[in-house]
Amino acid sequence: MSVDVATPEVLIHRARLDANIARMADATASAGIGLRPHVKTHKVLEIARSQLAAGAVGLTVATVGEAEVFVADGATDVLIAYPLWATSEIGRRLQALVERATITVGVDSPEGAANLAQHLGASASRIEAWVEVDSGHHRSGVRPGSVEEDRIADGTGLGLTGVFTFPGHGYLPGQAKDAARQEGEALSSVAARLRAAGHDIRHASGGSSPSVAFSSPDHVTEVRPGVYALGDAQQFELGRCGWDDIALSVATTVVSQRVESRELIANAGSKVLGSDRPAWTTGYGRVLEAQGARVTALSEHHATVRWPDEGRMPALGEQIRLIPNHVCLTMNLLDEVAVVEDDIVVDRWVVAARGRNR
Amino acid sequence: MSVDVATPEVLIHRARLDANIARMADATASAGIGLRPHVKTHKVLEIARSQLAAGAVGLTVATVGEAEVFVADGATDVLIAYPLWATSEIGRRLQALVERATITVGVDSPEGAANLAQHLGASASRIEAWVEVDSGHHRSGVRPGSVEEDRIADGTGLGLTGVFTFPGHGYLPGQAKDAARQEGEALSSVAARLRAAGHDIRHASGGSSPSVAFSSPDHVTEVRPGVYALGDAQQFELGRCGWDDIALSVATTVVSQRVESRELIANAGSKVLGSDRPAWTTGYGRVLEAQGARVTALSEHHATVRWPDEGRMPALGEQIRLIPNHVCLTMNLLDEVAVVEDDIVVDRWVVAARGRNR
């Protein structure tokens, strides 16, 4: 089986994508939790529209530039889940955005919030500000019980209406449940502290694709998974998606081989797949055609694949489809992707927010 | 010191770039070895023109799409250093290219060469084919003394006029000199075998930025370093460039900090820097302002920086410039870069071949 595309080409398997979107929408609705998908994963308008049509309460983005792309397409409620440091340019762009949609920004310091308020001017009252909480991932965010929590509760120049966290420490085998528990405890703790200071905290936002199944409506009003829509080798190896749920692969051609060692070289590398390789993963990616195969090395344009001992090895010139470890990086590398149904290309989607890093 | 750009932004330090280009041109000229820079590193027309003006014998690229970009800009001699598997589309594009420039392609199997010849048709006699040699990196390429060497020597349907290798195993501390020795031995061995079979082997192409200083004119006619023009954290840590030679940095803004642990978060992550992190590197990148600082973690839009114990930590909102581990991935992520002289933006260059993965 092969898809009629020039390789390397990113393929989106439409039926799997649709099923993933529906499954997460159903699961969060059943749990009584809102779903605000992180669209930095895919950066594609068509996928965001499907997520909103399936009941998402809004979208999550990482940058002002991503917010602009999705608001221009009609999104009405967008969280920029990032502790923005405003400049006059960022201030002007946010002013334009709040005219068209409900925009929420992250803050994790009174200095950052005051700087945002200053550059927003009269629009400051129209933006929502949610405090980012460090629930154990130790990246940005205020820690429960810290001096920073007190400082931000004491006043920032922006109205604080929510809390959010990224439980990224759930991206380790067996850690997702604990991460979700810590997410809930940290969000509730900081929300209580902010409420005690008089802030009207109405939103508590958590969740990542690995941990979202363990998020509790006792602690969160919404979750923000991203990768779930597409799946990748990392989610599969974490046990957070099934093999047949993986909706993105990269069509490649076998260009070289070493038959004696059961190795082949496919014509896609880190410039298409991305090069994320957490220590606990089994390689640089997987192969759709053979669950036992591994991408054992990755250069910019070469993937070295170790084929399983059993079974026929693909010949030179044959197509194989690689599954990247981390799909968010893959989608950031190409301008367009091919949409397939039953191995037939039925559409092409533009990666509308690719490279919108500012 | 800061540069007046919206962050994150890739900066090319013009004076350093020019010095790097001149230094490598002088070194290879003195050694009597041709220089064919690998332009996948930067993908920028202006930089390739400088390299050619400094005496480069031609350019190296990884894909047909990259060749098209540089030939359209006037390059007259381009090596596609990759074992291409031709399709009818690739055949048509190569036919167009050989009308405009001397085009050389890599082959590492008689099947791949025969397939190329078939799709090139009447243009097959106008293309140069060089045999890729595995000199120890164990990616693509034929191994000296192997059955594949005999098979390719026996005939491929393309005229074989050269040999080339990528000594990528020199990308380890202390290994560059040995890798260059193996490069020379492997190239000479395969060239001798091909000559014995009647092929007129006139080119032996080696070299990577770490190993090029050790390449010998006894074994190579030309070398193909790429990263040397820009430098990166990896080359610095390998001892292959000085701190003040690093010509690319990523301007970022400090958006969050943890003063007690001397950590800060800068607003650029793997979607701008790339996420290559060989095990021997000291982190995910370095910081131009403080040689003792390390990027200790990298998310898509966050770089966690551990600041040295001594000295003032940058404040929230301050600009710091990150040095990526592997600059080839960084240049593949943005459509444009800012060119700076004395911290003033003097130009903007389009990354003309970004995303040309086919």
Describe what you observe in this structure.
- The structure is a homodimer of 358-residue chains.
- Chain A has 358 residues and is α/β, with parallel strands linked by helices.
- Chain A has two domains: 38-225, Alanine racemase (TIM Barrel, Alpha-Beta Barrel), CATH 3.20.20.10; 234-350, Lyase, Ornithine Decarboxylase, Chain A, domain 1 (Beta Barrel), CATH 2.40.37.20.
- Helix content of chain A is 28%, strand content 24%.
- The first copy, chain A, is built from ten helices and 17 strands.
- In chain A, strands 1, 10, 11, 12, 13, 14, 15, 16 and 17 form a nine-stranded mixed beta sheet that branches. An eight-stranded parallel beta sheet of chain A has the order 2-9-8-7-6-5-4-3.
- In chain A, a hairpin with a 2-residue loop joins β16 and β17.
- Chain A is elongated, with a radius of gyration of 21 Å.
- The model of chain A has no long low-confidence stretch (mean pLDDT 96).
- At the A-B interface, α5, β10 and α9 of A face α5, β10 and α9 of B.
